[in-house]
Design brief:
The complex is a heterodimer of chains A (276) and B (198). Chain A is mainly α. Chain A is 70% helix and 0% strand. Classes of the chains: A mainly alpha (276), B alpha+beta (198).
Amino acid sequence: MAELPLAAISWWCTATGRPWTWSWIPYPGVWLAVAVPLVAYLRATSRRPPDRRRRVAFIAGMAVFWVASDWPLGTLGAGYLASAHMTQFLLYTLGAAPLLLLGIPEDLATRMLGRLTDGVRRLGRSPILCGVVYNLLLLVTHSPPAVETLRRSQVGSFTMDLVWMAAGFVLWLPILSPLAEGRPRTVAARMAYLFAATAVVAVIPASLLTFADTPVYEIYELAPRVWGLSARADQQLAGIVMKLGTIPVVWGTLGTMWFRWASRERPADRLGTPPR
Amino acid sequence: MARRIPRHVLAVALLLAGCAAPAPTGRLQGVVVEDPTPKPSFVLTDTAGERYDFAARTDGKLTLLFFGYTSCPDICPVQLSQIAEVLQQMPDVAARTEVVFVGVDWERDTPERIRSYLDRIDPRFVGLTGAPEELRAAQEAAGVPPAFIEDGTVAHASWVIAYAPDGLNRTIYPFGTRQATWRNDLPILAAMGEEGRR
């Protein structure tokens, strides 16, 4: 039997410098990264299955993670287009991470937290710390040295995607933590946190990308062109994706929080109870 | 007493500085040719089917000469697009610059095919081709190793040769040259030798 060339397999999307084609590339590492948490979740919740909404949210979260990591978006983002790279970032941090958090029931979260260190648990209890850590990760992972270094190897590219997922969890913990202990008490505080964490610092790299005279990332500037898109147009698109891509999720969440809060307060007003 | 900058502020500032494009230096950043050679003389066929005397037609202009082929999947489109993107932002330099692409794939690169290829990148670029012996002579005159075709793949020089308006080859730009370098160098090259002509 022929020996399986494990070293020749592309486990994770990375920059190759080869011209872009629509030929499918298998990434077994991505499949494992999707399958392992999914199986672990189903096993962990088999005795006390969570409600349908949580299960759907978790599976949807893993599906978004898969789409962001696998061919074609993963391949394009790793080595061809800055705009695809940015789309991946948004899918991880604003799609996969919040959906996965929504899908974790409280008892499972308690068991998972029991295995974490005090430092990580403290992070989950401090919205300010969460906001700072998320924005630092955003700045670091979008800096040219980090992108140039990490995207050129499978391990580096995997690390970047993992860090983005972690950044997404950190961002959404104060809003969607399965445990009540980490969330700010009032809806206004939660809304203020989400706005401050997502809408302020992100403008800096987004503006740099949109308005820079020359391409910032060498890896995308010198990559074989895809669909005739120039390096500068691609970078501007990346900046716009970063700037505008957050709007539907963040403002959608803010709007939902606001209307839920308003609908809860209205019956109390009618009964003459002072609003809290 | 001077206050110290907090480490975290410094770290963020450094990160952002890393994102910014490097400022023009006033010095050439391409590979500078120690002993500049004069512009070569060769005559090829342009994409309109007319004879094109390279030295005469580019006289007094900043000239960027590149030998490539239209089926090239990576190096040629990136090199040409880099120049096109930078020139689009510098119309005054672009007006004084001639970009000449010589298609060395004599089997496939017809004048029509070269024109259609260049029009997708920058319609102002000049496209040339010729018989194998003419192409070989042009490459030798420009000091680049002549391209050869093997199994449908074309091996060719991957660098751009820059001739200042004074007609001397001042710099070359290998594959991997970034737009920041072009943006820095093109105005400097365009100004070289122009004073003497006025």
